[in-house]
């Protein structure tokens, strides 16, 4: 009996010790925030990471090591997803390829990164269970997520809605007495934005864009197709359309959601096309200039939101610098405007230096901001591709190119879509960094999710781009920033099929030896003091 009691006592002590070890290990895992991707392959060149109501891979908060060491984070076609590592800064350099930090070359400061809370995004997020919804929002907005601080919000319907509507569909209502938000705002977008804000450690920068004015204010009497505002800038239709913006800001403010900026309207060039298939409002640059000068600018200034920024264009960058010249050369319009919003579609048709670079050099007091991008939009490469690394490289290439040409932020399109790339009332299906499978109550984080994360997670608001020089011609694409706390972030894209060895020289710290795997995205970060 005594031996049995002794054995029982030893077993209990061992069980207690194992329990303590388990709890300690669990606590360490939580504190480091290191949880692995559950990879799924759908037949493309890489994988997605599957998340459910109880589990999702995450990086947690990023804390840099002390001076003399550096952190690295790599994602790659072969399956790495923000894989963290550390290394020692070296006294001497040995690599043939050297990237040299040039901290005295200072450029623009970062505003933020984000995505759009469309009707479709909200429908997909809300199709999940409460636990999975929370996981998805955390991935984007919480400290253990990827640091989104910008959310673009369509004013009324767009193609990623299930039907056509505006907030004032009663003909002749120039005083907007019947103005009201839609069920999509009340029941979907507003609650989700409130939840996102509650999860975020920083205030969200909300950005509003309208696709179309009410049909009765337009020359074609319809929300779609070729049509612009009736009358002339300064007239009753144009003033009503400006007042519509104010009413929208007032309506959202009742729910403690205030907007950092509004754009002058989504893709005004689309509304100049014959038989355009979904919501659009046409403006020439001259018409946009005069509407801002006579109507929108004064209306916003006289409202309760005089500090809300106005961004012009909200269209493809190939329209620059011409569009900016027409609008910003006018002192009456320019006084109300803060920035120029660009979309990424058709970027390959015009070099960034000719469009973004020239615009910045002509008008350095106005910032450039990316407001829409997605893959899967081209008829030649349509819809969702679960696990496409090629699309992740397209994102990273565009972001690096934009950042190296004075853009201060980059906004993805839909935050979440279903496996078809919708819903979309006009069947204009595209891809998204998060794809929802409501039947299984899971969502997939695409390679593009991690592509944006290499920027959004590390480039905090106020981070300033600095110069980088290369010792020789290289296939590596890169950009460098000094963050508000003085630390450095260097982001490197290798789109080649070969591993590339290189080193980074920071004159105030030393040499950082590194390797960019084939088809990879690498973020290096280190303290300078």
Keywords for this entry:
529 residues; alpha/beta; Immunoglobulin-like; TIM Barrel; nine-stranded mixed β-sheet; eight-stranded parallel β-barrel; globular; signal; glucosyltransferase activity; glycosidase; steryl-beta-glucosidase activity; lipid metabolism
Description:
The protein has helices at residues 2-32, 119-126, 130-141, 183-199, 236-253, 285-302, 322-328, 331-334, 352-362, 389-403, 447-456; strands at residues 39-40, 48-51, 69-76, 83-88, 98-109, 112-116, 150-155, 205-210, 259-263, 309-316, 339-343, 367-372, 407-414, 417-418, 434-437, 442-445, 464-470, 477-482, 488-494, 500-506, 510-516, 520-526. It is of the alpha/beta class and 529 residues long. It folds into two domains: 65-108 and 465-526, Golgi alpha-mannosidase II (Immunoglobulin-like, Sandwich), CATH 2.60.40.1180; 109-463, TIM Barrel, CATH 3.20.20. The strands form three sheets. It has a nine-stranded mixed sheet with strand order 4-3-22-19-18-17-5-20-21, with helices on one face. A hairpin with a 3-residue loop joins strand 20 (500-506) and strand 21. The protein is globular and about 75 Å long. It starts with a helix and ends with a strand. The model is unreliable at 11-33 (pLDDT under 50). This is Glucosylceramidase. It is a peripheral membrane protein. It is found in: Lysosome membrane. It comes from Mola mola. Residues 1-33 form the signal peptide.
């Amino acid at each position: 009996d005594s031996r049995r009691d002794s054995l029982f006592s030893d077993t209990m002590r061992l069980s207690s010790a194992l329990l303590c070890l388990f709890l300690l290990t669990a606590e360490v895992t939580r504190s480091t925030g290191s949880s692995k991707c559950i990879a799924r392959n759908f037949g493309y060149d890489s994988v997605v990471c599957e998340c459910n109501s109880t589990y999702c891979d995450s990086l947690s908060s990023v804390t840099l090591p002390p001076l003399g060491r550096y952190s690295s984070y790599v994602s790659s076609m072969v399956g790495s997803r923000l894989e963290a590592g550390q290394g020692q800064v070296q006294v001497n350099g040995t690599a043939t390829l050297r990237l040299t930090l040039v901290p005295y070359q200072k450029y623009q400061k970062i505003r933020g990164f984000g995505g759009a809370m469309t009707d479709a995004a909200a429908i997909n997020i809300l199709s999940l269970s409460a636990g999975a919804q929370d996981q998805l929002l955390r991935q984007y907005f919480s400290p253990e997520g990827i640091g989104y601080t910008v959310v673009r919000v369509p004013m009324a319907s767009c193609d990623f809605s299930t039907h056509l509507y505006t907030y004032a569909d009663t003909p002749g209502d120039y005083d907007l007495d019947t103005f009201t938000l839609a069920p999509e705002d009340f029941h979907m977008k507003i609650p989700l934005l409130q939840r996102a804000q509650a999860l975020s450690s920083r205030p969200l920068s909300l950005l509003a864009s309208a696709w179309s004015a009410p049909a009765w204010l337009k020359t074609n009497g319809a929300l779609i197709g070729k049509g612009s505002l009736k009358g002339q800038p300064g007239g009753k239709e144009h003033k009503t359309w400006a007042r519509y913006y104010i009413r929208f800001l007032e309506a959202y403010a009742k729910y403690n959601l205030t907007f950092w900026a509004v754009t002058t309207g989504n893709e005004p060039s689309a509304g100049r096309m014959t038989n355009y298939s979904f919501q659009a409002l046409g403006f020439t640059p001259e018409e946009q200039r005069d509407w801002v000068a006579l109507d929108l600018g004064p209306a916003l200034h006289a409202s309760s939101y005089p500090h809300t920024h106005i961004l012009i264009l909200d269209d493809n960058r190939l329209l620059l610098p011409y569009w900016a010249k027409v609008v910003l050369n006018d002192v009456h319009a320019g006084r109300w405007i803060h920035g120029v919003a660009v979309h990424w579609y058709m970027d390959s048709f015009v070099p960034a230096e000719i469009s973004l670079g020239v615009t910045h050099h002509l008008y350095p007091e106005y910032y450039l901001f990316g407001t829409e991008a997605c893959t899967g939009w081209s008829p030649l490469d349509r819809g969702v591709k679960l696990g496409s690394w090629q699309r992740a490289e397209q994102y990273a290439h565009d972001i690096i190119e934009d950042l190296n040409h004075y853009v201060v932020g980059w906004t993805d399109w839909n935050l979440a879509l279903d496996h078809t790339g919708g819903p979309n009332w006009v069947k204009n299906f595209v891809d998204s960094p998060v794809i929802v499978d409501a039947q299984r109550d899971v969502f997939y984080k695409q390679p593009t999710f991690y592509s944006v994360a290499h920027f959004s997670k590390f480039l905090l608001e106020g981070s300033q781009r600095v110069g980088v020089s290369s010792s020789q011609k290289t296939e590596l694409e890169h950009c460098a920033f000094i963050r508000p706390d003085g630390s450095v972030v260097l982001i490197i894209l290798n789109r080649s099929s070969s591993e590339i060895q290189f080193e980074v020289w920071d004159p105030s710290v030393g040499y950082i030896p590194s390797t960019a795997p084939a088809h990879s995205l690498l973020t290096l970060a280190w303290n300078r003091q």
